[in-house]
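User: Good morning. I'm curious how nicotinamide-adenine-dinucleotide would be positioned relative to this chain. Could you predict the structure with it bound?
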Amino acid sequence: MQGGGQGLLAGKIVLITGAASGIGAATARAAARDGALVALADRNLDGARALAQEIAQSGATAEALAVDVADRDSVAAMVAGVVDRFGRLDAALNNAGIGSNETGSTGLRTGELDYESWRLMIDVNLTGVWLCMKHELVAMTAGASIVNMASIAGLVGMPMASHYAAAKHGVIGLTKSAAIDYGRAGIRVNAICPGYVETPLIAHSSADKLEAIARKTPIGRLARPEEIADQAVWLMSDRSAYVTGAALAVDGGFTST
Ligand SMILES: NC(=O)c1ccc[n+]([C@@H]2O[C@H](COP(=O)([O-])OP(=O)(O)OC[C@H]3O[C@@H](n4cnc5c(N)ncnc54)[C@H](O)[C@@H]3O)[C@@H](O)[C@H]2O)c1
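Assistant: Good morning! Here's the predicted structure, ligand included:
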C-alpha cells in the first residue's frame, strides 16, 4: 500500500463518493498527490476503476468500489469495504449527487415538480449524505474529518430547482448538527458550497445561462473542479484542525452579491 510520505493527507485513508467524475475525480487526484490512500466509490464502477488505475500508475494507492449512496445496504457495504481493505477511515468526501436533469425536472417551478423527481433528489442528495455519514462516523476515530458536498443552493434559493436547494440546505443542517454531535469526539464535519463548476452535472445548461452566471459572478467565470478539490483536501487535512460545522462558499463571490 502506497501512501506518499509527504503532503497534506500523507498516509491518510480517504473515501470519496461520486469519485468517477467532476469534483469527486478532481479531489481523488488531488488527495492522492497529497499523500492519501484513496477509496473511490461511485455507481459508475467502470469510471471509478479507470481513475483508480490512473492514480495507481502515478505511484499512489487507489481502490474502486461500487456504491449507490441512496441504498442503505450498498452504503454499509462501501464503508465496510474500505475498513476491510485499509484497516481504518481517516477522512471522507460525501460528494455523489445529481442535478435536475437526472430527475427529469429541469426548468420546473416548485409546484410543478412531481413526487418521483422530488423523492429521487432527496434520496440521493440528502439521504445519501446522511447514510454515508452514519457508517463513516462509526468507523472513524479522533482526528478524522468528514466533508459534505453542498452547493450555493444550500445557502440561497435556486430558481427552478427547489428540490435540489432543499436537499443542499439539508446537507448544511446535517453538517452543522453532526459537527456539534462529534466535536468532543475529535471528528470534524464541514460542508463545501461550490458555485457553478465545469462538470458534466451542468453540461445540459444552455450556453446563455452559463454566460449569465459567469457575468453575475464577481470573479467573472465558472469554477474548475480542481478549485473545489483543493478546498476539500484542506478540509480533510489536519491543517483545518479548528474548522468544524462550517459551510464554506467556494463560489467566486456569487453569494456575496
Ligand atoms: N457542478 C456544479 O456546478 C456543482 C455546484 C455545486 C455543487 N455541486 C455538487 O458537487 C457534487 C459533484 O457533482 P459534479 O459536478 O462533480 O457532478 P458529476 O456529474 O460530474 O459527478 C457526480 C458523480 O456522482 C455519481 N453519482 C450520482 N448519483 C450517485 C449515486 N446514487 N450513488 C453513487 N454515485 C452517484 C455519478 O456517477 C458521478 O460520477 C454533487 O453533489 C453536486 O450537487 C456541483
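The mean pLDDT is 97. The radius of gyration is 17 Å.
Let me know if you'd like a different ligand tried.
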